[in-house]
TrEMBL record:
This is Erythrulose kinase. Coiled coil: none annotated. It comes from Streptomyces griseoviridis. Residues 7-331 form the DhaK domain. The keyword Oxidoreductase does not apply.
């Protein structure tokens, strides 16, 4: 239970503010996260890590010498936005490029990928690496789909030490990939976490049972079993990881491994030690030499009761990098010499970039009023359904869809209003709204909704009066852009299952001669049907994928919210026709 909070929507920002105030020796706050207080030494690759809030000490607590140069921090259980990541990376840049590192989640992949593209366009060389250590989240044949959990730490550390030793950007990424390929984790949980402001946990486990194969976002495990003793828990964790050796490790005997026994938030250190006692014995029995083991909270999930085991199978290089000293707010080992001189801030992060408002025709400015009304209706419908969207998302996901949509749609409405007040046309109002949505919400839906609004705006332009055909073209463009960006297809149980039939119905009705309002009405009806039909699908993308069976019978959260929004926008079109 999270008891101490103010406005739940401000929780992540306020926690970061307090963290930075408490740890000035190590970190300096910048827009979107924190960087090392002493900066990045000139000519050194900067390793910028990041992810959602709720996982402390990941990610901000891992910034300091011997570990990350900066951390981009998103909302609770939602990836930071591309704008946040870009800002942190520019502040951390020491002149030799930036490696962006994160766990393999849809929102992180989208936003860190977009940030890397924007940084490269800014003249800051940037590469990405997603950690995929959780063996429960996909089979060995699909290792690229696995989530990142406590294995983040050894992989981040290997890359950061390689950067400190002067390796160039590509080689630092190669070291990250090498460490990632040799890192595996597996966990169990006894109760889910409760998000700030929520009155019940994201999942529960019966008292005599445990969830097997936990996630770090309050996702339920992939299975359930009898509650074990501490020794039985250790046996399960060790046996699972010994079955999952990396390709280039033939057998455990004779190997060395970095070991992390990670508490997820409310398992006591003493309990962890009782489990570790057996973990150490079992690894020794298997002939594995443990190197600098860590027992404690390193990647958490609020107050979730759970524990995970991570093994990084070491070779000489990885052992050297794992043993290297580190000095961060939450992770310290060994002794470090005097800090090197930091680079002059090569690419200071702009706090805000005021985009000029391009000239618009009177007709487009009038249309901008309708666009603003549509965004107001959109935000109002999200507000009304925020709890319902969270509940649907919690069935197999992380329960944050309502909060994320609320943050995004509120920011979009405010940005649209400001742009409209400055005389913007329809395209510019939608572009500002889309950027604000992606920036303030982060997460998968933030990136995708930002793209939807921008795509529709591109089709409308700032000069012509929007016709029904242009609106339909814009929606079809948005549908194609979402599929390109997120890689989902119809049938994967995502918002694409609604966006594609919605766009097709709108285009079809307009081509058949319907006016915009009538065509939109038909399309919104098709959207509602398509959203309901996602209840029968098994998810193949996003957070819900590892819990596919559990989601049967419940519609996809993003599909449902999109259908609700299309109906709300129809109300605005009726009023403005
Ligand atoms: N690859 C994808 N393509 C399109 N939509 C996706 C994809 N992955 C997830 N989604 C949509 O995003 C929704 C989840 O949004 P949200 O909960 O806000 O993001 P997150 O999962 O990052 O917390 C899902 O219900 C689904 O509709
Ligand atoms: O949840 C996180 C990011 O993934 P999303 O796909 O945006 O939910 C974050 O907590 C882990 O980085």
């Amino acid at each position: 239970m999270t008891r101490l909070f103010n406005d739940p929507a401000a929780f992540a920002d306020e926690a970061l503010e307090g963290f930075a105030a408490a740890h000035r020796r190590w970190v300096r706050p910048v827009t979107g996260g924190v960087v090392r207080a002493g900066g990045t030494p000139g000519g050194q690759v900067a390793v910028v890590v990041g992810g959602g809030s709720g996982h402390y000490p990941a990610f901000s607590g891992l910034v300091g010498r011997g570990l990350a140069h900066g951390a981009a921090v998103g909302n609770v259980f939602a990836s930071p936005s591309a704008a946040q990541i870009r800002s942190v990376a520019r502040a951390a840049h020491g002149g030799a490029g930036v490696l962006l590192m994160y766990g393999n989640y849809a929102g992180d992949v989208l936003h860190f990928g977009q940030a890397a593209e924007r940084l490269t366009a800014d003249g800051v060389p940037a590469l990405t690496y997603a950690v995929t250590d959780d063996v429960a989240s996909a089979g060995p044949g699909e290792a690229g789909k696995r989530r990142g959990i406590a294995g983040d730490l050894p992989v981040f550390k290997a890359a950061a030490v390689a950067a400190e030793r002067g390796l160039p950007l590509r080689e630092v990424r190669d070291v990250a990939a090498h460490a990632g390929a040799r890192t595996r984790s597996f966990g169990i949980a006894f109760s889910g976490c409760t998000l700030p402001g929520a009155d019940h946990p994201l999942f529960t486990v019966p008292a005599s049972r445990m969830a097997v194969g936990l996630g770090i976002h309050g996702e339920p495990g992939i299975g359930e079993a009898e509650l074990p003793t501490a020794d039985e828990a250790a046996e399960l964790l060790v046996a699972t990881l010994l079955k999952e050796l990396p390709e280039d490790v033939a057998a455990p005997a004779g190997q060395r491994a970095a070991v992390i026994l990670n508490g997820l938030g409310s398992v006591k250190y003493e309990e962890l030690f009782v489990v570790y006692r057996k973990v150490a014995a079992l690894l020794a029995e298997a002939g594995v030499e443990t190197v600098d083991p860590e027992v404690g909270e390193l990647v958490t999930s609020f107050d979730m009761a759970g524990v995970s085991l991570t093994l990084t199978w070491l070779d000489d290089l990885l052992e050297d990098l794992w043993r290297a000293p580190a000095d961060t707010p939450a992770y310290r080992k060994g002794a470090l010499g005097e800090p090197e001189a930091s680079a002059a801030p090569a690419t200071p992060a702009p706090d805000t970039e005021d985009e000029a408002i391009p000239a618009a025709s009177d007709a487009s400015r009038r249309a901008a009023g309708t666009v603003l009304a549509a965004l107001e209706a959109l935000a109002a419908t999200v507000d009304t359904h925020v709890d319902e969207l969270g509940r649907i998302d919690a069935v197999a996901g992380d329960g944050d869809h309502g909060i994320g949509m609320q943050r995004g749609s509120t920011a979009a409405r405010e940005a649209a209003r400001a742009a409209r007040d400055l005389g913007a046309g329809a395209a510019t109002v939608l572009a500002h709204a889309g950027d604000a949505w992606a920036d303030k919400a982060g997460g998968t839906s933030g990136a995708l909704w930002g793209t939807i609004l921008r795509s529709v705006g591109t089709a409308l332009g700032d000069q012509e009066a929007p016709t029904a055909a242009r609106v339909a073209e814009g929606v079809a463009g948005a549908s194609a852009a979402v599929q390109r960006l997120g890689g989902a297809e119809v049938g994967d149980k995502t918002m694409v299952d609604v966006l594609v039939p919605f766009a097709a119905a709108l285009t079809g009705a307009v081509a058949a001669g319907d006016g915009l309002t009538a065509a939109w009405d038909r399309a919104a009806t098709a959207a509602a049907g398509a959203a309901a039909a996602t209840a029968d699908l098994l998810p193949r993308k996003g957070r819900a994928r590892p819990h596919a069976e559990r989601s049967l019978g419940t519609p996809d959260a993003g599909a449902h919210s999109l259908a609700l929004i299309t109906r709300a926008v129809h109300g605005v079109l009726l009023d403005h026709q």
